[in-house]
Amino acid sequence: MKWNKLLCEKRFKQSSNEAYEFDERNEFDKDYSRIISSSSFRRLQDKTQVYPLKRGDFVRTRLTHSLEVSHIASSIGKSIEKYLQRGDQKISSLLSVTGLIHDLGNPPFGHSGEYIIQDFFKEYLKKSGYDNILTNIQKEDLLCFDGNVQTFRILRKLQYLGDKDSYNLTYATLATIMKYPTNSVEGNKKDKGKLIERKFGYFDSEKSDYDKIFEEMGIKGKRHPITFLLEAADDIAYCVADIEDGVQKKFITLQDLKNMLKKIGRKSLEVQELLEKIKEYEEKNKEIENSSLFEKIVVQKIKIYIQGKMIQEVIKSFIKNEEFILDGNFNKELLDDGAYKEIKDGLKNLAKNKIFQSKERVFTDILAAKVLRKLLNIFIEGMIDWLNNGEEASLTSRNIRVLISENYIINYESELKECKNKGDEIYTTLKLCVDFISGMTDQFAVDLYKKLQGISE
Fold first, then answer.
1. What is the CB-side half-sphere exposure of residue 90 using CA atoms within 13 A?
2. Among candidates 147, 144, 67, 143, which has minimal Cα distance to 109?
3. At residue 106, what are phi and psi to the nearest 5 degrees?
4. What is the largest CA-CA distance in the chain?
5. What would the pLDDT profile of 39-65 be if each residue is shown by its tens digit?
6. What is the reported pTM?
7. Per CATH, which fold does 108-140+358-457 belong to?
């Protein structure tokens, strides 16, 4: 892999925007401009990061998380540029925009929403008999629905801006957000296969786009090197921020954090240094130790300290393993290669045990399942009726079609024209319903569910 080819500025079509005399942006800065004011990005403000349907100005949403990832990723990129002696700022710009868009495809209710959609299709495909009609890849696309994969689909097709190329982003941007460049049959091997086979990166409906991008860049079947940095920035942003939000919501205490560190790091120099830092921050804020602010401030300081250390670890690991990464032979995440792996894993487990298994979270997950399963049933039933009967479909089915955003209908009709058989048409119709529902915000999904169920406010 060569850096100039990896930073490919090619697009699916030539930009029709006017060229200005004073515009010093590179092509990845222009990608950023296309995303930052878009409706898909704005919807992240009402999508779950950890706490669904929560109003407040402290806990994070997908939007604030994405802004944090973008900032951390860009910071890492500047250090890599210095190491590579690149003065064009293209790596940091590429990381900035991909940090911004990496969660664009997440459904309502976060990862819970993904699992609900997956579980729905496990039952639906058998009950409907479509498991005998769809291809293996089409079935796995639905059974293994993933928000990261949906991101690629949104960026390529689902934001209608006058033509079929959606945002028309650069090849490098589109390649970088694909963590696992395999299809749903070759991937989804969890921890059994190579790193790029743990999940998958593109739906069958976007295979031709994947082929075109990765062949042009000479990295087919390999992860883009910048993706390692993006994934690290995502981990750095959320593994500590989830703890900070947990303390704010009183699901986690400072003592919980200290107990976790003592448990995992009796022999770890990094853990011992972190415990010393906690003591230092506690001493500096001793005058407010009886205040509700005490733990919040100490944890906020710890977050900044840990994130700074993790950023250094990621940069060192990338520099050390650059040759293997460029050859496509590096088979682990950058944070798993450094001294902070234990701390990262410990923080994730603490959040899992204290937040994701809390009663409050369990109740919202039950609500999420009820809402999303009902919406999927209603829209799929209506659109399959429409597919089979057109204008002769029931009035309810015709009305269901009207409720789906025109953005999605335009792409649906375009994809239907390319279908070769009935199985392709069913797959395309099921994908339409998933596109629409997974694109909803948490609150919109709940409100639409109530309206369709006749539940008054």
1. 17
2. 147
3. -65, 135
4. 74
5. 888 888 877 655 554 555 556 788 889
6. 0.93
7. eoxyguanosinetriphosphate triphosphohydrolase fold (1.10.3550)
